[in-house]
Write a structure and sequence with these properties.
six-stranded mixed sheet, 31 helices, 958 residues, Isoleucyl-tRNA Synthetase, domain 2, alpha+beta, Isoleucyl-tRNA Synthetase, Domain 1, globular
Length: 958
């Protein structure tokens, strides 16, 4: 401590210091815990409470789940948590029953990797991390209901994650009802003959395995052999969203390859239309809505069947949005992974095959095999990139264009993906840029069927690029029974679709970019699937009485990893090595007695637990049902302005737009369809907070150096005598620029940290951290303290006197502005208004009690510890948390007078102080009578007077 500060503390022993702040904050945090200050009562079921509180309007405020990292929190992490805490506190003070709590998303790869490295069980390290994070969060004074907190790794929690999975597994999407229904209803349709089986055999004539295969084609959770993103370096498969744009794993940065594996999937595509349509009613940032719309990718067009020559039972089905150009299809392309490829490849090249089509291989099979290996090494993004050179190979097979009867060669090429449409395209090279480049590279024919609007003519062999237009006439498009010539694109689409449907070789349809959600991971640290397989490989759901299915102990937590570049590998899961757990004899309660089964050895992805956690917050100790229906309706049910229900405010990062947010919406809709919840959407209002950034300092090697040890001299930055560079970036331990909340709390107190993070700028904008600037909010709190407490005696210094009118106006203007800012999450401007009021009060010789009390109430949501202490010192026994927030008196909000500018010939000649309510007539008369205006006119007549009451009069002389 400096001599100056030491002397100040002797002269002012009751000054607000970091030590005093620490004492105040610890005492009030203990008080809140002991008295259940933040307990939010439910209307029924568990956690019931004060009926008067339940009768208030409710407000459910949520943060996105934190992951309990071993590194703990840095000051960037609690930005959103502090913001939701301020918002929740404000609404408690405005008469709401507020539910605000926080749990932990604790399954996932980081804990598993740490276990592999250290031999520590993931549960041990994760629970230790949770203890540390709870300590750090408590120190910030966050007003969470502690009774409702949990972690996704708690068996009592993931019992219900497994239960929801089984509800999804035992459901199908009925397109007629446009909702999920129990799978038993579908089986009943097959059994009654209402719905025919695929091969026409009666349902009771099928084996159990055959029935299971048929139902699996409809289940919302299903296992299938499908193309997946296989990451040998991690030893697991990844969802599309977990693969970066350059084809590497989001975590670990390993190469990712396409492979075929049997995996669990969620049929999220069945909900594509509803996921799109229901976005309109949500109060979300438009940027997030746009990301979801683009990810779902709805497009209207037609499915068209192309027969395969010499294969009577084979057809290639394509989806196209330009069915009007069918006559221009001169070749076809299949994705290398397409199921049909192997069956149509002939033994030898057909006569007349161009050399450029073969890739230099002796047989079609050799060419296809080689090209598939080449394509498997590329990511989807790489395959779709506009590469200069187009690659592909002829399969040796031909299809028939159904409208022209022309024979068209069938290629495979990596720019066609199985993940979009049907994995096959009809290529119209004259009118598609990629098809044009491919046709040029492989010397394929092109046919103009859309009349160019420029002077290029109708011979594509003379063109430099394709001609694409939705506003042109169709040409060269006439065949047996149909002609599109002369039609516009829209009319041509309708006519050819009708023609295709009449001949049962196509139909108008809608397609989506969205793919089914890959739901398996080859990991240990995740929720076990509540699924077992019988001796015939049929999947069976565990009965509810066997839930939760807990993770067994294993000696080796890691999935088997491989050479990151070796695509010819396949997963081996940690659970598969525990034979005693995998192979079991169970009585599933189906009347068939005990039987041998094999457990599923994959685990659920880390997203599973966060798909429904908002519901567990409502009823966290319910062991009998997912959530009490009345409790769910109270907190999340539909209401005015929220037709789909959901959480009132959900705050988190924008990076989860097409991962967590889309998945959670899907689960919510399934549960809604099945009658388990009243809310069809999980989160009504979404707010994306910005990021707290920090300067990264690097030496000449590009290595990050400790930011706290860097010195600034003459505009340059130095570390241990070496000049270093500075760049604004993320805050993190690896970048050596992390500042912990513990450090700031120790030096200034938690209330100062809260104020600084909220005052840094608009909540939704990223901003740089500057420890030196924290002191500004510390001084605000010191001035507030001095306005109420005598620093020499520690006694309250306010007086029981009426405030003057200027102070009343300053108070009520602040109240009015702060209320608006609090409701709108504009905490930086709210703090500015409180600071202005506090500075005004500082100049008042004797602070009236009524002013001091309302100033304390204004700052209470932002700085709750000092507010509690001052409120108690002002003579109140009750906690400030539930005190009413101040309400502005309108009479003091409006300025008593307004300055009106009077101009003559556009030049200011007078300024009048007038009432804000002054009429145009009154203002004109006052302006014309002003001596300065009379002198400026100098007897001249008046041609025009323009009045904009109460602020402007413009006089135009004759």
């Amino acid at each position: 401590m400096s001599e100056t500060n030491a002397a100040a503390e002797v002269a002012a022993p009751h000054r607000y210091t970091a030590a005093l702040a620490a004492d105040i904050e610890a005492r009030w945090q203990d008080f809140w815990d002991a008295n259940g200050t933040y307990d939010a009562p439910n209307p029924g079921g568990d956690l019931t409470g004060d009926a008067d509180v339940v009768a208030r309007p409710k407000k459910f405020v949520m943060d996105m789940f934190p992951y309990p990292s071993g590194a703990g929190l840095h000051v960037g992490h609690p930005l959103g948590y502090i913001a939701t805490d301020v918002y929740a506190r404000y609404h408690r003070m405005t008469g709401h029953n507020v539910l605000h709590t926080l749990g932990f998303d604790a399954f996932g790869l980081p804990a598993e990797q740490y276990a592999v490295q250290t031999g520590t069980h993931p549960r041990v390290s994760t629970e230790a991390n949770i203890v540390n994070m709870r300590r750090q969060l408590r120190r910030l004074g966050l007003g969470h209901d502690p009774r409702r907190s949990f972690a996704t790794i708690d068996p009592d929690y993931y019992k219900w994650t497994q239960w929801i999975f089984l509800r999804i597994f035992n459901s199908w999407y009925d397109p007629e009802a446009k909702k999920a229904r129990p799978i038993d209803t579908l089986a009943a349709q097959f059994a009654s003959g209402e719905r025919a089986t695929p091969d026409g055999r009666p349902w009771d004539g099928l084996t159990e395995a055959e029935r299971a295969d048929i139902l699996g084609e409809y289940r919302l959770a299903y296992a299938s052999d499908a193309p997946v993103n296989w990451c040998p370096g991690l030893g697991t498969v990844l969802a599309n969203e977990e693969v970066t744009a350059d084809g590497r794993s989001e975590r670990g940065n390993f190469p990712v390859f396409k492979a075929k594996l049997r995996q669990w999937n969620m049929r999220i595509t069945a909900y594509a239309d509803r996921l799109l349509d229901d976005l309109d009613a949500l109060d979300w940032p438009e940027a997030i809505k746009l990301q979801q719309r683009n990810w779902i990718g709805r497009s209207e067009g037609a499915r068209v069947d192309f027969p395969v020559q010499d294969h009577p039972d084979a057809k290639i089905t394509v989806f196209t949005t330009r069915q009007d150009t069918l006559f221009g299809a001169t070749y076809m392309v299949l994705a290398p992974e397409h199921d049909l490829v192997d069956s149509i490849v002939p033994a030898a090249w057909p006569e007349g095959t161009h050399d450029v089509w073969t890739g230099g291989h002796a047989t079609p099979a050799a060419a296809v095999d080689a090209y598939r290996k080449q394509a498997a090494a590329k990511s989807d993004v790489e395959r779709q990139a506009e590469a200069k050179d187009k690659t592909g190979v002829f399969t040796g097979a031909y299809a028939v264009n159904p409208v022209s009867g022309d024979r068209v060669p069938v290629f495979i090429a990596d720019y066609v993906l199985m993940g979009y449409g049907t994995g096959a395209i009809m290529a119209v090279p004259a009118h598609d840029g990629r098809d044009f480049a491919f046709a040029r590279a492989f010397e394929l024919p092109m046919r103009c069927v859309v009349e160019p609007s420029d002077d290029r003519g109708t011979d594509p062999s003379t063109w430099d690029d394709a001609f694409a237009s939705y506003d042109a006439k169709i040409v060269n498009s006439a065949g047996e029974g149909v002609s599109l010539n002369g039609l516009g694109v829209t009319e041509a689409k309708a006519r050819i679709t009708e023609w295709l449907e009449a001949r049962s070789i196509g139909e108008g349809t809608v397609n989506f970019r969205l793919r089914d959600w890959l739901f398996s991971r080859q990991r240990y640290w995740g929720e076990p699937f509540p699924i077992v397989y019988d001796e015939d490989g049929v999947a069976h759901a565990l009965p509810e009485s066997m839930l939760p299915l807990e993770l067994p102990e294993v000696e080796d937590y890691s999935p088997r990893t491989f050479d990151p570049d070796d695509a010819d590998t396949s997963p081996e899961t940690p659970l598969s090595r525990n034979e005693e757990w995998v192979n079991v004899v169970l009585d599933l309660g189906d009347g068939r007695g005990p039987r041998p089964f094999r457990r599923e050895t994959n685990t659920m992805p880390n997203w599973a637990g966060s798909c429904w956690y908002e519901l567990r917050y409502l009823d966290p100790h319910n062991s009998e049902q997912l959530v009490d229906p009345g409790t769910e309706r109270y907190w999340m049910g539909p209401r005015d302005g929220q037709p789909h229900g959901g959480v009132d405010l959900y705050v988190g990062g924008a990076e989860h737009a097409v991962l967590h947010l889309l998945y959670a919406r899907f689960w919510s809709k399934v549960l809604f369809d099945l009658g388990h919840v009243s809310s069809a959407e999980p989160f009504h209002k979404l707010y994306n907070q910005g990021m707290i950034q920090a300067y990264v300092y690097r030496d000449s090697r590009g290595i990050a150096v400790p930011a706290a040890e860097v010195e600034e001299r003459d505009g340059a930055y130095w570390y241990e005598g070496e000049k270093v560079t500075r760049l604004l970036g993320k805050m993190g331990k690896s970048l050596k620029n992390a500042v912990t909340p513990d450090e700031i709390c120790a030096e200034y107190g938690a209330d100062t940290l809260r104020l600084y993070e909220m005052a840094m700028g608009p909540l939704d904008v990223s901003r740089p951290w500057d420890t030196r600037a924290v002191v500004g909010q510390y001084r605000l709190l010191q001035r507030l303290w001095r306005n109420v407490v005598d620093e020499a005696t520690g006694e309250v210094s306010v007086v029981d006197a009426e405030p003057d009118e200027d102070t009343l106006r300053a108070l009520h203007k602040a109240i009015d502005g702060v209320r608006q800012d609090m409701a709108g999450l504009r905490f930086n401007t709210a703090i500015a208004k409180i600071t202005e009021l506090n500075n005004h009060v500082t100049k008042v010789r004797e602070v009236p009690r009524s002013i001091a009390e309302r100033l304390v109430l204004l700052i209470a949501p932002l700085a709750p510890h000092i507010a509690e202490e001052l409120w108690r010192k002002l003579g109140h026994d009750a906690s400030v948390v539930h005190e009413p927030f101040p309400v502005a008196d309108p009479a003091y909000v409006v300025d008593e007078t307004v300055t009106c500018v009077v101009q003559v010939k556009g030049k200011v000649k007078a300024r009048l102080e007038v009432a804000p309510s002054v009429s145009d007539e009154e203002l004109e008369a006052q302006a014309l009578g002003d001596p300065a205006v009379v002198a400026a006119l100098n007897g001249a007549g008046i041609r025009k007077v323009i009045v904009r009451a109460p602020k402007l009069v413009n006089i135009v002389p004759a």
